[in-house]
Amino acid sequence: xxxxxxxxxxxxxxxPAGMAAAQxxxxxxxxxxxxxxxxxxxxxxxxVHMLLGREGMTPEGLVLAARRELAGLHTVSLxxxxxxxxxxxxxxxxxxxxxxxxxxxxxxxxxTGVVDVLPPIPGVGSAYGTCLFHCPLCHGFExxxxxxxxxxxxxxxxxxxxxxxxxxxxDVELCSNGKPDxxxxxxxxxxxxxxxxxxxxxxxxRASAGGLALLMGDSTVRTYNAGxxxxxxxxxxxxxxxxxxxxxxxGRVQVDHFQRTSVPRVLxxxxxxxxxxxxxxxxxVATAVASxxxxxxxxxxxxxxxxxDTQGS
Length: 313
Ligand SMILES: Cc1cc2nc3c(=O)[nH]c(=O)nc-3n(C[C@H](O)[C@H](O)[C@H](O)COP(=O)(O)OP(=O)(O)OC[C@H]3O[C@@H](n4cnc5c(N)ncnc54)[C@H](O)[C@@H]3O)c2cc1C
Description:
By secondary structure, the chain is of the alpha/beta class. It is built from eight helices and 19 strands. Helix 2 links the parallel strand 2 and strand 3. The model has no long low-confidence stretch (mean pLDDT 94). The structure holds flavin-adenine dinucleotide (FAD). Flavin-adenine dinucleotide binds next to helix 1 and helix 8. Flavin-adenine dinucleotide (FAD) binds next to helix 1 and helix 8.
């Protein structure tokens, strides 16, 4: 790859994690390029919750507000384009991008996010983010005491239904879309807790202003105000895999305390990354921002420390 421009840090992914890293580095006047494909994970949601000082803002509004702040930092270049390839050499990183040719940087921060894997039920995509969510913690408050459904057939789905019943609404049903995978003991615990289990097949999902309708295999329709989906996610970009980054058991890029990956010169932040010692998911806007700040603060000091050491020798 022929290099066209040189930066101290290239950041791929301009969601909350990547932009937070860019802000910290830009404020230290580091030369930074931020590439973003503008497909944030929560784009379908109408509002962002649990972000102190920004409660209820739209995801797009949050991105645009952050971009306005970055525009004030003259050493930060934002490119709205997709990075297609990355090469890590001994002393530099080369990033290829659709609309920017090849970019050369000393370090790379990956912030490419994750993509939720939705069940193959017609209509699920249009409901996801409007009245069907993966995270009761983020979107439960707005659904309190309403008629709710948890969709899924795993032990995790059963756990989620029990959590929703305890924290959000007593009127909750678990829809397993066929025979549940959870054990008889779990089924009995749900029954004792007063959580109904609906195990008929779901053949379609309809979202409306009034809520969520599940179209069942026997042509009946079940309606709810909102629902939660027990789902999994995958990496948002093939780049971590192509770079050979070590992954955690749940497919996230394994990072250390400073968000460093197993690949020299490469850090990873946001939903896509996780410390080897961390349990659970914990994928929130605030945690994404925090990891971006951590990586950038570490990198800024590390770059300076190397200069300091060279000057001393
Ligand atoms: C429906 C829904 C609602 C949610 N609601 C909340 C909420 O209320 N509160 C909360 O705290 N969390 C919420 N979340 C979680 C939240 O969206 C994530 O935790 C957060 O977006 C993670 O930020 P990130 O920067 O890691 O990734 P993202 O926001 O996903 O950003 C990743 C960015 O990288 C870009 N990208 C990927 N590959 C490339 C590439 N090759 N080149 C260039 N750019 C690339 C993408 O286009 C995207 O812009 C919600 C999630 C969903 C699915």
